[in-house]
Structure formats: structure tokens, C-alpha cells
Design brief:
This protein is α+β, with helices and mostly antiparallel strands and 203 residues long. It is built from 4 helices and 13 strands. 32% of the residues lie in helices and 29% in strands. The strands form 3 sheets. An 8-stranded mixed beta sheet has the order 3-1-2-4-8-7-6-5, with helices on both faces. It has a 3-stranded antiparallel beta sheet with strand order 11-10-12, with helices on one face. A two-stranded antiparallel sheet has the order 9-13.
């Protein structure tokens, strides 16, 4: 039993190391990198990383490219950000002179969102897991990109009721998912959980 536990520990350590190496590659670019297309929240993602989502949507509300950022590219952005904002505020986004937005979580990740929101450059700063990278990239960083494209990402759970999308908004722990589960048990369909993307349309 002890040998079995030891082998299990080694396997878990190798799996963890593989995840760390995968995330560390966020900060490395090879020049020409192939991309894959995915669908998430009705958005087309053109990603240089493999993502656990459905491939190649037929149509999409928005299009965002996810690319590997280099240390030199982020160095210039960081230098400019220091002249306008204190580092502790960088997670809220720092508008740069060229229209880009710089976002950073110390010792974790940093992102550069293009002026039109069509591209997010990402770079790992520490040894967080692949899941943590996906959470920051496809949650917070993607929200900045969608805002630039005219969408408003909401912290909401959305279900389909009589052909209409109904969103339950609220802070974490306020019962959005529990309320949605009641509708799902009644035969309604879950459309999405956070973030839900809303766009104002001209009548």
C-alpha cells in the first residue's frame, strides 16, 4: 500500500509539473503559432492554446484572438502603466496611449487587450495551474475585450423561458444557480453562467 501511495504521489507530481510547464509557455512565442477556433458564450475564440471548449462555431456574436505575449512586449506596457497608475490598481485595467489596455495580477498573469478588443496577449508570471490561467484569461481579461466590442459581460445565470433569455443577476452566493436549477428541473434550458454577454441593439 505504501508503494502504491508513493507511485500515486509521483504521478500527481508529474501531472502538476506538466500543467505548470503548459502555463509557463504562455510567456513564450515561437514566431508562427497555429491557432484553433472555439466557441464560448456565443463568442468565437481564435486561440494559440488548446481550450476545453467546443470547436469552430457556425456563427458568433464576437471574435477574439488569444495570443502568446513576449516579455519585451509587456515591458513597454508596464513602464507606461507605472506613469499613470499604482501597481495595486492594475487588475482594474490601465488604458495606454495607443488604445490598448494593460491588466496585471502580481505574480500570476498579465494581459494586453488590443484597442478594438479583437485580441488578448497573455503571459504567465508564476506557476499557477492551467485551470487558473483559463479562469483569468476567459473571465476577467475576456471581459475587457468584450467591453471594447460593445458587449457588457454580466455576472449572471441565464435560462431560456418561453423563447426569451432571462438573466438572474447577483453577487456570488446569492442563489443565481439555485434559482436557475429550479427552472431547469421544470423543463427550461440553461443558456449560460457567468459571464453573460448583453449588447444594446438599435430598434
Amino acid at each position: 500500500p505504501r508503494a502504491h501511495l508513493s507511485e500515486g504521489w509521483r504521478q500527481e507530481r508529474r501531472r502538476r509539473q506538466s500543467e505548470i510547464e503548459s502555463v509557463a509557455a504562455v510567456g513564450v512565442t515561437s514566431g508562427r503559432t497555429s491557432t484553433r477556433e472555439y466557441e464560448l458564450y456565443g463568442i468565437r475564440l481564435r486561440s494559440e492554446w488548446s481550450l476545453p471548449y467546443r470547436r469552430v462555431p457556425a456563427s458568433s456574436l464576437a471574435d477574439v484572438g488569444l495570443v502568446r505575449g513576449t516579455a519585451s512586449r509587456f515591458s513597454d506596457a508596464r513602464d507606461e502603466a507605472r506613469t499613470t497608475r499604482a501597481p495595486r490598481t492594475w487588475a482594474r485595467g490601465v488604458p495606454l496611449g495607443d488604445g490598448q489596455t494593460y491588466v496585471r495580477w502580481p505574480k500570476r498573469f498579465e494581459f494586453l487587450i488590443s484597442p478594438d478588443g479583437g485580441s488578448i496577449a497573455a503571459r504567465a508570471l508564476g506557476q499557477d495551474s492551467r485551470e487558473a490561467f483559463h479562469t483569468f484569461l476567459l473571465g476577467q481579461a475576456l471581459s475587457f475585450a468584450l467591453l471594447k466590442q460593445g458587449f457588457d459581460p454580466l455576472h449572471a445565470t441565464v435560462v431560456s423561458i418561453d423563447g426569451a433569455a432571462v438573466a438572474f443577476l447577483g453577487d456570488s452566493g446569492n442563489g443565481k444557480s439555485s434559482l436557475a436549477a429550479m427552472f431547469i428541473r421544470s423543463g427550461h434550458k440553461l443558456l449560460t453562467e457567468y459571464p453573460a454577454c448583453a449588447q444594446a441593439l438599435a430598434e
